[in-house]
């Protein structure tokens, strides 16, 4: 079963085609963990030898040596590769991983499916944190319920499972990032594993059909799901229940058991924990360094290296520490003292990374030639984090749309009258920030969330709720302006979608081949815009021209260089622009208007990417805070309506 869990996760993070739902391997792991831990605890309780000390010793021997070996190797790589800002994030993630709170760190800093998350070497430790939090609490729960009998245990765990699933259903609609990482939203997966363990002990059965069905459910999620699916949610039941069916019914003699007993699958299962530990750092550091594009050949090599390191880790790190009793190479006392020291040292390292701004001064001394360029790029990213204007609460951006959001918007309308709303993904979020920075209007409505283009799932991105609100309260909207990331609406000649990280990984002097428009995706977005325009005026903006000059290129060439787009890059945006100019009038929707590239400010890459005074962009497609103010003023001064609306004070 561990093979089915770990391999899809690795291939998903490596962006291997077709494994779009490989992230559900983590959910499979959770069910397996709940099943095994409950089986161990119940066996100890039945034999009257339950001991929290013994339980935590087992967990420490199983988890900590390989974890800290991986973190130590990452620290060395971070010293050599990471810039100060990246180093600080890494150090803080290491410190929180040591105390099993990295899930909290990552929900506070990024979403799991954000492109930047792929460059976090310790992103995957969030799931270890969830498991450890479960290990801390569940033994106490089971021990407290033990004397009440199996019916009480099952009833309590069932109630907790349903409560956790209900929380997950609420969470993905209201707080999707927290929901993804939160133990409360994930507990139902572990509890289903626990309930399966109880069932297996009371009524062990063999059923080849149900075992096969369970395996098919897992495979269906691996190949059928994608980041578009809200997770965790009721959708998680497909791989979770599937895993439970395999654990319950795939006994000796079934086809599923024979399949899972193949030598290769068993071998990968043995080293699965170490493979899980090593895959993300290898992929992340390869993406960060930008020396060589992460192409198919390099990806294959990194996957092979993952399993090679996993075997070494299993053989020389995991195995020596796992033996207990008379065969133990390390005593219980040594394990606990060593674990405490490693946890303390790693946590202190995280504090150091934060206090030293990612060992900034040391890095400057070692890299005096590029310190100025780094300071500009870092300033562009850091200042963007403090962008909201708290003195103008009605200019805030609403990432989720719920009843509270509706109340706040109506209160602002009652005070200031109608507003122009900015709707879309992180590109639209930049635009909203630009209007807030450059305009004195007191009510500028932001309805944006990273990744939420108009052609994304409407539930996940609150698009249905926004459409419903606009139909009931059209008076709130002077107009709606929408803009979104362009590259995902195109496909490579190979047929795969164009990803931001693909463009970022291209050499600066590379030529971009002719790309094909994903008309199905584009039409989905236009359909939503048309439905919204039936209620309020909608201005569909031309695509923002993304430059995707890598930060490493700026560091190499300097801030006083005239940068340019790659050969063939502008064609990506003009192709979209031409399509929109022709298609939107054909829709025949009076309230839907298109503002083409000819009416929008197209920046000059030579002078408006970075100068030695300011970085206008925080990455290859997002403006910095200073860039927002700069481009916002330009749009208000030279752009057509509705940008002229922002020139007045209003209110």
TrEMBL record:
GO terms for molecular function: acyltransferase activity, transferring groups other than amino-acyl groups. PANTHER family: ACETYLTRANSFERASE, ACYL_TRANSF_3 DOMAIN-CONTAINING PROTEIN. InterPro entries: Acyl_transf_3_dom, Acyltransferase_3. The keyword Cytoplasm does not apply. Residues 1-313 form the Acyltransferase domain. One of its GO terms (cellular component) is membrane. GO terms for biological process: lipopolysaccharide biosynthetic process. The keyword Acyltransferase applies. It comes from the Bacteria. This is Acyltransferase 3. The chain crosses the membrane at residues 24-42, 63-83, 126-146, 153-172, 178-200, 207-226, 232-250, 262-279, 291-314, 335-352. Keywords: Acyltransferase, Membrane, Transferase, Transmembrane, Transmembrane helix.
């Amino acid at each position: 079963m561990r093979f089915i869990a770990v391999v899809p996760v690795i291939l998903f993070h490596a962006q291997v085609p077709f494994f779009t739902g490989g992230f559900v391997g983590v959910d499979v792991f959770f069910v397996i963990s709940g099943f095994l831990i409950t089986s161990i605890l119940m066996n100890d309780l039945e034999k009257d030898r339950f001991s929290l000390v013994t339980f935590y010793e087992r967990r420490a021997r199983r988890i900590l040596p390989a974890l800290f070996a991986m973190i130590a190797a990452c620290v060395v790589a971070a010293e050599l590769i990471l810039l100060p800002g990246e180093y600080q994030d890494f150090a803080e993630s290491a410190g929180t991983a040591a105390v099993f709170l990295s899930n909290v760190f990552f929900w506070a800093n990024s979403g799991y499916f954000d492109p930047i998350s792929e460059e976090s070497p310790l992103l995957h430790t969030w799931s270890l944190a969830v498991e450890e939090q479960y290990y801390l609490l569940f033994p106490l729960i089971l021990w407290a319920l033990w004397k009440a009998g199996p019916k009480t245990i099952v009833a309590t765990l069932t109630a907790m499972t349903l409560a956790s699933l209900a929380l997950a259903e609420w969470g993905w609609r209201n707080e999707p990032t927290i929901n993804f990482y939160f133990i409360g939203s994930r507990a139902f997966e572990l509890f289903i594993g626990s309930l399966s363990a109880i069932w297996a002990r009371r009524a062990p059965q063999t059923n080849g059909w149900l075992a096969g069905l369970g395996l098919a459910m897992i495979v269906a999620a691996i190949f059928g799901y994608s980041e578009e699916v809200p997770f965790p949610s009721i959708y998680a039941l497909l791989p979770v229940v599937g895993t439970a069916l395999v654990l319950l019914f795939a006994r000796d003699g079934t086809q599923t058991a024979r399949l899972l007993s193949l030598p290769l699958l068993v071998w990968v299962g043995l080293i699965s924990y170490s493979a899980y530990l090593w895959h993300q750092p290898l992929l992340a550091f390869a993406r960060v360094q930008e020396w060589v594009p992460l192409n198919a050949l390099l990806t294959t090599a990194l996957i092979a290296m993952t399993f090679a390191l996993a075997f070494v880790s299993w053989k020389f790190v995991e195995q020596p520490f796992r033996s207990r009793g008379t065969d133990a190479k390390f005593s219980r006392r040594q394990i606990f003292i060593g674990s405490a020291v490693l946890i303390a040292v790693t946590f202190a390292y995280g504090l150091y990374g934060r206090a030293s701004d990612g060992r900034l001064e040391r890095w400057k001394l070692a890299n005096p030639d590029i310190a100025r360029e780094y300071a500009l790029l870092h300033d562009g990213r850091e200042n963007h984090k403090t962008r909201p204007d708290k003195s103008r609460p009605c200019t805030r951006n609403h990432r989720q749309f719920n009843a509270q959001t509706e109340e706040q918007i109506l209160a602002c309308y009652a005070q200031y009258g109608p507003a122009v709303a900015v709707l879309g993904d992180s590109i639209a979020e930049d635009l909203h920030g630009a209007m807030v920075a450059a305009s004195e209007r007191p009510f500028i409505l932001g309805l944006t969330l990273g990744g939420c283009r108009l052609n994304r799932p409407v539930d996940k991105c609150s698009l249905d709720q926004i459409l419903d609100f606009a139909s009931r309260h059209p008076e709130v909207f002077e107009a709606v302006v929408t803009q979104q990331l362009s590259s995902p609406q195109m496909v490579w000649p190979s047929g795969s979608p164009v990803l931001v990280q693909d463009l970022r990984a291209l050499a600066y002097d590379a030529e971009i081949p002719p790309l094909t428009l994903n008309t199905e995706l584009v039409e989905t977005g236009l359909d939503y815009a048309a439905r919204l325009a039936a209620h309020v005026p909608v201005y569909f903006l031309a695509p923002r021209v993304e430059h995707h000059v890598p930060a490493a290129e700026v560091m190499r060439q300097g801030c006083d260089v005239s940068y340019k787009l790659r050969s063939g890059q502008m064609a990506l945006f003009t192709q979209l622009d031409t399509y929109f100019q022709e298609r939107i009038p054909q829709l025949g929707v009076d309230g839907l208007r298109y503002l083409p590239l000819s009416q929008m400010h197209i920046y000059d890459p030579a002078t408006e990417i970075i100068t030695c005074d300011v970085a206008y962009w925080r990455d290859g497609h997002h403006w910095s805070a200073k860039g927002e103010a700069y481009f916002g003023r330009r749009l208000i001064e030279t752009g057509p309506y509705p940008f002229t609306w922002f020139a007045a004070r209003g209110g």
